[in-house]
Amino acid sequence: MHKYKPENKALWDSFVSKAKNATFLFQRDFMGYHQDRFEDYSLMVYKKEKLIAVLPANASDKRVFSHQGLTYGGLLFSDMLKLKDVSVCLKLVLQYFQSNGFAYLHLKQLPTIYSPIPNDELQYLMFVLDAKLLGRETFSVLKLDNKPKLSKDRVAGKKRAIKQNLVVKEEKDLAAFWNNILIPNLAEKHQAKPVHSLEEITYLKTKFPNNIRQFNVYLEDVLVAGTTIFETKQVAHSQYISANVDKNLIGSLDFLHIHLIEKVFKDKMYFDFGTSNTNQGRNINAGLQYWKEGFGARTITQDFYEIDLSSANKLDALFI
């Protein structure tokens, strides 16, 4: 636990409604399943004893990053905080990192669909801080209360799957999908491994059994495709999608995702297919983008910024 008293006490006092003996607490939080890959520098921010914000982060070479082991991140804060409160909170976070010897914070924004309320406070504050835009990635997203219109290709894929008598099952065990489909495909096509090892994703599922769900597709009891879903209150996100070489011939991935969209997650607000980007957002896998848009998905973006920590004082003159 790190206690940090801001230089501008009057500004902080206004944030805590002039509460007596108010302090701003930074608690270093450690992400156990990534500790061998990153120097964790995650923060939990408290007003008195109430948690008001979290920043999943790691440190490297005098820089702090919105955690590089996470797809989403950024400074996440209570919906009770107003714009002025967020600006004070961000300023103090920047000062904290600077006081610990860092020069820059690389901040990734939370995609808007993952917030239950409007949340562009940080986007605006990046402008005020003259933060440098380093990258922008796209995500293919369905808004499920507006019935998606499937393309002819996706409908044809579903028909092929029905003719093959494919079956979708939700499974508690992720091992079959990881070992028989996902890992071999990534190794063969991209000479890569999943971001999460089987051990890591299994550990996470034990911690969040209702939020990490595995759906597999079977042809005569043989596993042919699957997806690992990360579920939040309003979003179902396909974190991993993979199938065997017959996926186009038998329509396995089309069948799977139409099933998820129309039946399993039909009451969610959004279905997120994730990114099709490469090269830090400057290129898009055309085939993958075409497939996702065939379900009716459209594009939202996620921005990545570099903040010079010495610029924190620019927030002092924000409100006049």
TrEMBL record:
Source superkingdom: Bacteria
Any one GO molecular function term: transferase activity
Keywords for the protein's UniProt record, in alphabetical order: Transferase
Official protein name in the record: GNAT family N-acetyltransferase
